[in-house]
């Protein structure tokens, strides 16, 4: 597969889509990313960036302000998301939730919240690397769970919650996740992670 | 500005540091050097050494500066006390406030600020060592750091200066030429379109001299822009190579 690294201002072929823009009839990349063209549409996958919330995203959040009938939750966006819920949470609780709505100033409303055991660990990777941490049809997450024995929840916002049988197992899983994030744009990653985890 | 009574700055068509009139100082750019910043860049431009860090989009504080239509761009140009020959009094002064303002206005034109309502994008430029042309070096480093942070922008801004020394138009003046020369013209452009985002002029140029200086500065910008793009690509190609070798 041909992988072309583009930087802001580079001309690309195809109709404009996300992370590109139209400049006097030409399609131009607006980020550092990997480019390919699919069915006449220019596709640029950014190599870095903050979390941009979309409806239906599954996220891992941390409660920053418990309220009556709801809570403010930090989901790695510039502003805390709001979660209306009958459950009561404490400051610092880790939850998973789904994005219900994002308005025009990117205020996020959450729903389908679930508390996760506070004995777990939360690590952060760049949100653009999350698709590789999950893998095709969850292949990478399944591999990580299987080879490290850890339980994992991967949020679209780049937060990953994990809990394992021992601290060593969690440390191993964390190392593997960080390796995936660092090498996310390289081919043959699943095989390499498999080798990496079985060697250690 | 007259240059009278000083040593000759151009001898036999060569400048004091051995450059030809239309030659740049050596430029070295490295992207992604700081761990805690979202994007960063270290740049050496001759004797100039500049570090740029970008944070954001993040919460905009104080709150009354939030704009529901676009992000606020913050640009802080700061010189280290040890960056110049005599100690520079630390903290913002008239000069650095002006440079921060014009650089911010140049970047506001290229970043897609409307994508991040109510947020703030913060750019910090620290000059570690100065040798004339730090506003150009700072802006050049800042735009690489912005791209490294994954912030969508129209193009990578690049800046470069031209000047008049010993009655000759030269590219990229250094400290001696800046102090004892006749004019200094720093510009910042969008390399795709050639749109000028920043232009300042210290000294006097005749119309033909100005045209020649602008042309030289634009050519210099294009050369530096190539280095900016390579620095960004290099950061990820290195990683890609490392990955492939292990397979």
Q: How would you explain this protein's 3D organization?
A:
The complex is a heterodimer of chains A (200) and B (247). Chain A is α+β, with helices and mostly antiparallel strands and 200 residues long. Chain A has 3 domains: 4-46, OB fold (Dihydrolipoamide Acetyltransferase, E2P) (Beta Barrel), CATH 2.40.50.100; 58-115, Nucleic acid-binding proteins (OB fold (Dihydrolipoamide Acetyltransferase, E2P)); 121-199, 2-Layer Sandwich (Ribosomal Protein S8, Chain: A, domain 1), CATH 3.30.1370. Chain A has helices spanning 130-134, 139-148, 167-182, 189-199; strands at 4-6, 11-12, 20-23, 26-29, 33-38, 41-46, 58-67, 70-74, 81-84, 94-102, 108-115, 121-124, 151-154, 159-163. The longest helix of chain A is centred in the last third of the chain and has 16 residues, at 167-182. Chain B is 31% helix and 29% strand. In chain B, the strands form 3 sheets. Chain B has a 5-stranded mixed beta sheet. In chain B, strands 8, 9, 10, 11 and 12 form a 5-stranded antiparallel beta sheet that branches. Chain B is of the alpha+beta class and 247 residues long. Chain B is built from 4 helices and 12 strands. Chain B has helices at 94-108, 134-148, 175-180, 207-246, and strands at 10-11, 14-15, 27-31, 39-45, 48-59, 72-79, 119-129, 158-165, 168-171, 183-189, 196-199, 202-203. Chains A and B meet through helix 4 of A and strand 5 and helix 4 of B.
Overview features:
heterodimer, A: 200 residues, alpha+beta, OB fold (Dihydrolipoamide Acetyltransferase, E2P), Ribosomal Protein S8, Chain: A, domain 1, 3 domains, five-stranded antiparallel sheet, three-stranded antiparallel sheet, 21% helix, B: 247 residues, Ribosomal Protein S5, domain 2, five-stranded mixed sheet, 4 helices, globular
Structure, briefly:
The complex is a heterodimer of chains A (200) and B (247). Chain A has 200 residues and is of the alpha+beta class. Chain A has helices at residues 130-134, 139-148, 167-182, 189-199; strands at 4-6, 11-12, 20-23, 26-29, 33-38, 41-46, 58-67, 70-74, 81-84, 94-102, 108-115, 121-124, 151-154, 159-163.
């Amino acid at each position: 597969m041909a992988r072309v690294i583009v930087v802001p201002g580079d001309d690309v072929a195809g109709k404009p889509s996300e992370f590109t823009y139209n400049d006097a009839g030409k399609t131009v990349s607006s980020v550092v990313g990997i480019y390919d063209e699919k069915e006449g549409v220019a596709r640029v996958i950014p190599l870095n960036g903050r979390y941009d919330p979309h409806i239906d995203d599954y996220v891992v959040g941390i409660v920053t302000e418990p309220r009556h009938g709801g809570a403010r939750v930090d989901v790695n966006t510039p502003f805390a998301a709001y979660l209306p819920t009958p459950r009561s949470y404490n400051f610092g609780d880790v939850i998973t939730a789904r994005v219900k709505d994002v308005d025009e100033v990117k205020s996020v409303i959450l729903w389908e919240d679930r508390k996760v055991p506070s004995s777990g660990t939360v690590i952060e990777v760049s949100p653009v690397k999350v698709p590789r941490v999950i893998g095709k049809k969850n292949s990478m997450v399944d591999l990580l769970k299987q080879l490290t024995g850890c339980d994992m929840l991967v949020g679209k916002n780049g937060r990953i919650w994990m809990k394992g049988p021992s601290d060593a197992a969690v440390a191993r899983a964390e190392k593997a996740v960080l390796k995936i994030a660092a090498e996310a744009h390289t081919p043959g990653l699943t095989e390499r992670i498999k080798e990496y985890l079985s060697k250690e | 500005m007259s240059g009278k009574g000083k040593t000759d700055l151009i001898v036999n068509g060569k400048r004091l540091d051995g450059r030809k009139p239309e030659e740049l100082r050596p430029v070295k750019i490295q992207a992604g050097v700081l761990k805690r910043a979202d994007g960063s860049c270290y740049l050496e431009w001759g004797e100039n050494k500049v570090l740029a860090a970008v944070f954001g989009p993040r919460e905009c504080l104080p709150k009354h500066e939030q704009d529901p239509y676009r992000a606020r761009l913050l640009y802080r140009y700061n010189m280290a006390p040890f960056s110049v020959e005599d100690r520079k009094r630390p903290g913002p002064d008239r000069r650095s406030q002006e440079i921060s303002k014009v650089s911010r206005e140049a970047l506001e034109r290229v970043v897609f600020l409307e994508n991040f309502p109510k947020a703030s994008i913060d750019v910090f430029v620290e000059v570690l060592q100065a040798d004339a042309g730090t506003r150009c070096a700072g802006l050049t480093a800042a735009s690489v750091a912005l791209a490294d942070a994954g912030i969508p922008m129209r193009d990578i801004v690049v800046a470069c200066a031209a000047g008049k020394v010993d009655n000759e138009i030269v590219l990229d003046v250094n400290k001696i030429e800046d102090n004892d020369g006749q004019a200094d013209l720093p510009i910042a452009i969008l390399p795709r379109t050639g749109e000028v985002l920043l232009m300042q002029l210290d000294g006097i140029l005749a119309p033909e001299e100005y045209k020649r200086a602008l042309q030289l500065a634009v050519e210099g910008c294009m050369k530096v822009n190539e280095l900016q793009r390579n620095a960004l690509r290099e950061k990820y190609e290195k990683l890609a190579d490392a990955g492939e070798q292990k397979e």
